[in-house]
């Protein structure tokens, strides 16, 4: 596949985006390493409970990045740079409002949420401590999402990479100092993450404020813009919630199959997540490029870029699938899997590999339609594909973890059908600001 100028643009956006995507989950991994070394098993379990809650919140609020990317890119493509910054500022105000609301709601509910996991008394107490302190970082965490969306919409994925890497390093240093140096326990780990997230948010606020100053854009919230961002975000929230339902259902089914099946499923999920980061990087490029080209009124360029990114998705998925097959014999050893888990994992990795090209197309078209502002369709498609998955998952429950992964493949194929049919039409090709 010869490299063209369009390919170079895709790579310019996708490669830094991949680095930023990988850096984000390293926050919790650094916490796990430091807490495990300094505080022991009980604290690690508490971190696992609180981390699951926080990860779910981040995943549900990712619309702040996606929706802002689409709106800023469209206005920028239309040449309305001041309005592009206005969209970005309003997106950040929405993020701040949601973050403050999460503190107000989450602080009193933290014990009840933790109790749902059924952990022991000491573990639950530490989980509540970590969760409550971490919620103080929610405004910063969500501002980072919205700020990332602003810069992606402006076709800048390098700055988010720099901020993500810097925040990760700061998080690791602060956690080590607070937990191992000062002996603050699990609270120290939470405070380190809060400070790192808040400082990362401060960087985005400075960058956006400078851009707004250049464009003569007020930094005060525009209620109409915030309301519009919230309306678009609600549709993306439904889309994301449907995805979480699918993954949660799969985890519940795997848990009921047995310990070995759950372990094999969990490891395969980690492998799949890493591959998803690579494919999602192309989707982020798709969001930015599609929003800009449609804003500029260039339908032909939008179609051409979409076709090229779909090709990238197919080839990237095929390469990743081959890599999974090549790494398949050694992967169980990397996770120190016992013989029962190893046998299941070796079988499960086949469907993981086979469905990667499908995932590549799905991720790209998902990003393209988000960039086009086609959120309402994506919300409905999310509902229908989830309904298609659930019967397949229930049927797979009686046939083992490999069948469960094949059911996830059915879900991806259902998404492929809904997305390709939409992309083949013209309803999403709305041009202008």
Order of helices and strands: HHHHHHHHHHHHHHHHH
Which ranges are low-confidence, i.e. pLDDT below 50, for 5 or more consecutive residues? none
% residues in beta strands: under 5%
Give average pLDDT, whole number. 83
Counted by DSSP, the helix tally is 17
**Based on helices, strands and strand pairing, what is the structural class?**
mainly alpha
Number of strands: 0
How far is the N terminus from the C terminus? 34 Å
The best one-word shape is globular
- The helical percent reads over 70%
Rg on CA atoms, Å: 21 Å
How many domain modules? 2
Largest sheet: none
Structure description:
The protein is built from 17 helices and no strands. It is mostly helical. It has two domains: 23-221, no CATH class; 239-433, no CATH class. α11 runs parallel beside α14. The protein starts with a helix and ends in a 9-residue tail after the last helix. The model has no long low-confidence stretch (mean pLDDT 83). It is a multi-pass membrane protein. The chain crosses the membrane at residues 12-34, 46-67, 88-110, 130-151, 158-180, 186-208, 229-250, 262-285, 312-332, 344-365, 402-419. Its main location: membrane.
Give short descriptive properties of this protein.
transport; 0% strand; MdtK-like; mainly alpha; transmembrane; 433 residues; transmembrane helix; DinF-like
